[in-house]
Amino acid sequence: MSEMVRVRFAPSPTGSLHLGNVRTALYNWLYARHTRGVFLLRVEDTDKERSSEAHCEELMDILAWLGLKWDEGPRVGGPYAPYKQSERTAVYGEHLARLKAQKLVYPCYCSEEELELERKRQLGRGHMPKYGGKCRKLAPEECRQLDDAGRTSVLRFIVPSGEIMVQDEVRGEVLFPSDQIGDFVLTRSDGSPTYNFTVVVDDALMKVTHVIRGEDHLSNTPKQILLYQALGYAPPKWAHLSIIKGPDGQKLSKRHGETSVESYKSKGYLPEAFLNYLALLGWAPKSGEILSLDQMAAEFDLTHVGKSGAIFDPVKLHWMGTQYVARMPLDELTRAVLPYLEDARLFNREQARARFDWLKQVVETVRTNLGCFSDIAKETFYFFSDELHFEPAQSEEMLNQKPLLEAYQKGLASLEDFSGDNFLKAVKEVGKQMGVKGKALYHPLRLALTGREDGPELVKIAPLLGKSKVLDRIALWTVEQAPK
Fold first, then answer.
1. pLDDT at position 250
2. Are 228 and 235 in contact (CB under 8 A)?
3. For residue 247, what are the CA distances in angstroms to 252, 312, 320?
4. Which of 240, 361, 367, 457 is deepest in the core (most CB within 10 A)?
5. What are the pLDDT digits (tens) for 113-150?
6. SS in 3 state form for 39-68?
7. Number of neighbours of residue 400 by Cβ within 10 angstroms
8. Higher pLDDT, 248 or 42
C-alpha cells in the first residue's frame, strides 16, 4: 500500500497573504484532496521581530474565508502538534545536538562587514557569492578565546563535496554542484534556528511527503536535502511552482497594484471566483475554465503544472468574478452588495427595507457587469444620485442636442403608464419625428439619464428611475441655464 500523501502550507505571519502565497496553499490543498491525503497548516514564526499573532490570525481567517480547510494545524490540532515553530524550540535543540555530535557544524565568528566584503570580492571576480569557510579551520582553543572575548557567532553546516540532484515534479532533474553553495547558517547569533534548518526538522517529523512551494525556494532545496541526509531522514518529493508575474513580465509586486488577498476580499470578490482564477495561473484543466473546488481537486495533477510564470491579469479575474456573480440568487446578491452601497452613501438598510423589490431590479439590471460586490457603486450611482458628472465634450454635445431632448421631454411627458415598452415606443416615435436613429438617437438620452457613455439598456433604466426623475434630468438640458 502506498504512503498517504501529506502536504503542508507553511506561511510566515509577517504580513498579509499575497496572491502567490494563496496559490501555493490552493495547489497543496487540491493535491491533498485529489490524492485523499492530508493538508496541514504550519506557522513559521521564528522571525520574532516581524512575526505577530495578529498576522497569524489574519492568515488563518483568509484561508477559512477561501474554504481551504486544513486537516491539521493551529485551531484544529493534530498528531504532530505544536504547529507553530515558535513552540518547537526544544525539538530544534535536539536535532542541533545530533549534528554537533556528528561534527557536521562549526561556529562562525565572521562579522557582517567581513562577509559583505568577501561577497563583493567574489562578485568582482565573476564568482557566485558563497561563504569561503574561513572559520571552519578554527581550532577549539581559538573558538574559546573568541567566545571569552565576547565575539558572537552563528552555527554553520559543513557542506560536503559532490553534486546534489533535485528530482522535481514540475521541473524534472535539477543539479546543484555543492562547491557553489558554501557552508550555510543553521542558527543566528542569538541562537534562534534558521528557515532551512527548521523546515527540514518539521517536514520530517510531520511526515510531509510532498513539498509544493514557489520556485524562489528551489535554491534552498539542495541545502535541505543535505540536512535530511545528515539527520537520517528520507527527503520528500519536491514540486516548485513558477512565480506569478505582472503584465510587464516581472515578478508580481505592489508596483503592479493590489497583491494582498485581503484587498480582494474587501472589494467583495467571491472566494470561489478568486480561487478559480488563481488555479489557472500555472495549471490548465482539461474540463474548462469555470470549475468548483471539488471539480478542480478531481482533476488536479502536479504533472500538468506549467514551468513558466503566469501573468496575473486583473481584467481576467474581474471576468471570472462576473461568471460567479451571475449565478447568485438575486435576493442573496442584493443583500451582499448593500453594504457597499452604504459605504458609498448611496443607499442604506432602512431604505432597502422599504424598497427592496426596487433595489433588486436595479441590481438585476447591472449584475452582468459586477465582477465583485464593490462594483455596485460605480455601476448604479445614477439610480441613487442626481449629481451626475459631465465632461466638457459631453456637455457641448448635449447642448447641441437641445431640440432632440425637447422632443423627448414632450413625448415622454405624455405617457400615463411609464413602462419599458411604452418608453421604447415613445423613443422610437421621437426618432421618426426628428429623422434620427441608432446612436444619434439614444446617446444624448443615455447621457442625460445616467451621465455615462455605456450601461444597461435604457428601456430597463428608465422605468426604475421613474417618469418624474427622467423628465427632470432631461429638463436640465432644455432650460436656459443648462449644466456645463
1. 84
2. yes
3. 8, 7, 18
4. 240
5. 988 898 898 888 888 888 988 999 999 999 999 999 99
6. EEECECCCCCCCCCHHHHHHHHHHHHHHCC
7. 10
8. 42
Q: Are 441 and 430 in contact (CB under 8 A)?
A: yes
The rounded distance, in Å, linking the Cα atoms of 61 and 135 is 45
Per-residue model confidence as pLDDT tens digits over 448-463 = 999 999 999 999 999 9
327-386 tens-digit pLDDT: 999 999 999 999 999 999 999 999 999 999 999 999 999 999 999 999 999 999 999 999
Q: Measured between alpha carbons, how far is 466 from 409 in angstroms, rounded to an integer? A: 14
The number of residues in the chain equals 484
Residues annotated catalytic, as ranges: 254
Residue 239 region, left (φ>0) first, then alpha (ψ -120 to 50), else beta?
A: beta
Q: What is the 3-state secondary structure (H, E, C) of 161-221?
A: CCEEEEEECCCEEEEEEHHHCCCEEEECCCCCECHHHHHHHHHHHCCCCEEEEEHHHHHHH
Termini Cα distance of the chain: 78
CA 20 to centroid of chain Cα atoms:
6
410 Cβ partners below 8 Å, 6+ apart?
A: none
Single-letter residue type at 45: D
The Cα–Cα gap between 344 and 378 comes to: 9
Give every CB contact of residue 330 below 8 A, 6+ residues apart in sequence. Answer: 360, 363, 364, 367
Distance separating alpha carbons of residues 352 and 400, to the nearest angstrom? 39
Cβ-proximal residues to 164 (8 Å cutoff; 6+ apart), any chain: 175, 176, 178, 181, 222, 225, 226
List, in order of start, the domains of the chain with CATH numbers: 6-85+244-315 (3.40.50.620), 88-241 (3.40.50.620), 328-384 (1.10.8), 392-475 (1.10.10.350)
Fill in the amino acid letter for 100: K
**Burial class of residue 173 (count of CB atoms within 10 Å of its CB; 0-12, 13-18, 19+):** exposed
Cell numbers found for residue 337? 452588495
Q: Which of 188, 185, 165 is nearest to 177 (CA)?
A: 165
User: Partners of 238 in the beta sheet?
Assistant: 168, 211
412 has a pLDDT exceeding 50:
yes
Q: State the number of CA atoms in the 13 A half-sphere of 431 facing the CB.
A: 16
pLDDT for residue 484 = 55
Question: All 3 cell numbers of residue 128?
Answer: 557566485
Could you tell me the three cell numbers for 40?
A: 496541514
- The grid coordinates listed for 461 are 433604466
